Amino acid sequence: MKYFIKVLNVTTLFSVLSLLSFSQSKDSKDSLISFKISELKAVWSLDNDVSREEKKYESFASVPKLYKISASESVSDAEYVKRVNEAKINLLKKDIGLEGVGNYLQNFNPGFNTDDNLLYHFRYQVGLDWNILSDGFIENRYKQRILKNENTIVSLTPQTKKNDGEDYIAVSHKIIYSFNIHKIKILEKRQQIIDDKISVANELYLLKHLSRINLLEIMQQQVDVGSMNKIYKSYNDELKMKMNVDSLPKNILPVFDVDFSKFLSVDSAAVHANGNDSILKLQIENLKLAHKPLSDIKLNAQVRFNYYDLVNSIYSRNYMSAGVGVAVPIPLRIKANKNLVTAQTKLLEFDQKEGSKARQTDLLNSFYEFRYKLKQYSNFYEKRKKYEELVRIERVKEKFGDLEFNPLTALNLLDEMLTVDIEMLDIQQQMYLQLLDIHSKAPSADIEKIIMPYKIDTLSIATEKINRSMYIWSDAQKKYESSYIAEYLRLNKISTAILSLKKDQSNKTEAEVLINKLNSKGIKVELLIGSNKLLTSSKPTAYFDSVTNGLDLKAITAIHLDVEPHTMSDWDANKENYLKQYVELLKTAKNYCTQKGLQLSVSIPVFYPEETLKDIYAQADKVYIMAYEHNDADYIVRKVKEEFAIDANKTTIALRAKDFNNRNECEKLISELNQLLNTSNFAMHDLETFVKLDELSVNQNQK
Question: In total, how many domains does the chain have?
Fold first, then answer.
């Protein structure tokens, strides 16, 4: 029994000692964990203010300077061409087709007893030949004119020094280096924070207080920072030896936008000022000069001194001679040359037209890429604001001792925010490089005049969500290429195109091509039908069929009826009758659209009576209110209150380009109406006049 008690006491003692040891170990572990967490808090306290640091930006004037090349430049390829042509011209000026000639002939064993004294031991001739036409004086004059024309063409063709080849690379190096500097600074800050937390995180992992996933995430951050830092530093270290980095901007380069309407107009104006038509005329003139009929005819004059050592005479014989030689090809090829010039002229005209279209499309694509980058930058800007708020919340938690505060989570949020900063710099760098690409395609445009400050804080989210439509008349479809119209609508965020199609379908081909192009860009199409004769027509559906005949109605969303009874000469006297006819027409049109699987849209003025408006809204799926002649927001709000009261969702405000002095006025009115009416549905009347309004805005800005 005593033995058992002793054993029990020993067992109890070991249990107590074990429990005490475990308790001490647990307390020590908790203390160690608390200590490590306090270390992370210290790192957080030291670094969290980085989220509130204000970024320093260069002035807007620094942007154009970045694209300029120093004056110690080599001449451009165009200047070399002109120099070569000038040398050729000088050579041809001295070549008047005159050449000295001479020949010597020795006869061996000449015959005797001849009476004509023509046999001789030897003879020689010296003299001058003058080629007057082919390969001579006249043709050389033609060649001079051709070379002078080529120099003029080179001068008229947009050229800049230092804009492509090595110089393009030089500017891109400056851009990349300038942004890499600030990326490296952020990476160094990220590296410092990661270094401060990774050792602590590793110990917390060993203490079973941090998951392996969380530790691996931190290790991944370290790998990413290290690899990016190496890329940026090695690039900049290499460039330091090749360029004057002290001349580059020290602060972050500003964000900018490109006014493409201004850019296109400036470039187009430069092209026309330099003379696209003049270039074509000079090229055609060169063709005619190269195929002059006289160039096929050889005409030469010659003068000779002749000396003969006669066989049967002790005397020699010498005399002067002169002559003219003519060689004419048979047939003369006048008509063939003319046909060749005509064919080549057509080819030049075609190439110029196609080249202009390809150039414009290329520019539009480049501008679209720039705008896409700008959109990405705006998205990341909003993302950064979100992380700023999350970091601020963690800062508040830590300040008030909130138990939910986790310094590791807070530091990871801070790292993600710095990662967004690098992404923003990278996108901004791509925007600068995209502008370089745009400028290389249109070097005549002055960067200083085509860029504008971009204040992202003032970006209206509501404005971005505006649903825009645009009227496109049949004349505009003939005037502009379908690719140009599609790109213009896309860049102006037009979601619906209202296309006019003539009853005789004379513009059907252009319309079909345009409809397919717009559909491929995600732009909806409404087919506009406008004829006041429909008011009194007994068979309006026949008219609808004549317009839609042969069209793929699946590519069209709606019939847009643009019938205007208020424009009739006797409107004031017969207003009620016309309005009744109009409503009946809408009923017929609605039935027709329902059968064809289409919607019905209508355009109406702002002054129709309320009872008629109710009937119109009952039939139409969309109602476009033509708020023309006034660009005052309060006035328009007063005039459309009945329409919005009936059905705001169906209502679209149509604005006319002719009512504005520039595009900014139009956009300002849209923004005001967007707020006052709480609507996002607007229509622009019409494509051609808005293109002209854009050009007018450019001219005003230039002044």
Answer: 3
